[in-house]
Design brief:
Helices cover 61% and strands 0% of the residues. It has 12 helices and no strands. Residues 221-231 have low confidence and may be disordered. The radius of gyration is 22 Å and the shape is elongated.
Amino acid sequence: MPLSPLEHDRRYGELDQVVRAYAGQQADDTPDRPSQALTAYLRQTWHDRPWALAVAERQLREYADHPPGRLRLRLGEFYPVPDVGLSDSEIQRWLYCLADHIRHSVEQGEVPPPSTPATHWEWHARFPELGQFLGGWFSQDMPDEFAGHDAAVDDYRATTDAQLVVRLVGELHELLALDLDEPDCALALAELGMEVDPPAPYAPSGWLELVAHRLAGPRAVYAPETTEGRE
């Protein structure tokens, strides 16, 4: 019987987060050194969900202790580990290695120092609303959907809950505080889903400042038209 969403999250939810952190990254962890992907997962999870690390360690170890057979995977009764470039015979050892690194990090209190996001997963985990904004309103279809960048920003604001707009403003300021040079800022925008260039004459950081200012300002309020006083 296929896993229900609740059962999936209870048994494999945080394991899935760990494995997703390896998208586009090498699973080259060794007993002496965690990979860049695992370091990024540790850094972000320590920051916003430290309690989840113990869950991840347990789920990784339990999955490695009882690897599913092909039949149960085909029936949807187990979480299928996505392809991370390792053979089936290497997966079990790799999962134990990840669990050991996470346990060591928790028990020793070894937290990766703050840093600019190093992986695609970390960019989106750290800036979730900015990823929604750029990927949803500034994809390659933006020129066909809106009259320009300002129109897209205004549409986001008009159709998005005010609390999420405030969250986006905070994430914009956090990204700007990384003080990236313009090429790295452009790469950050691409990682977060932007598929069009900022409008001329703005550099990426200058456009982000403009967007933050535009979204932080008061919403335009239009009074309804009235016929009072007309003949």
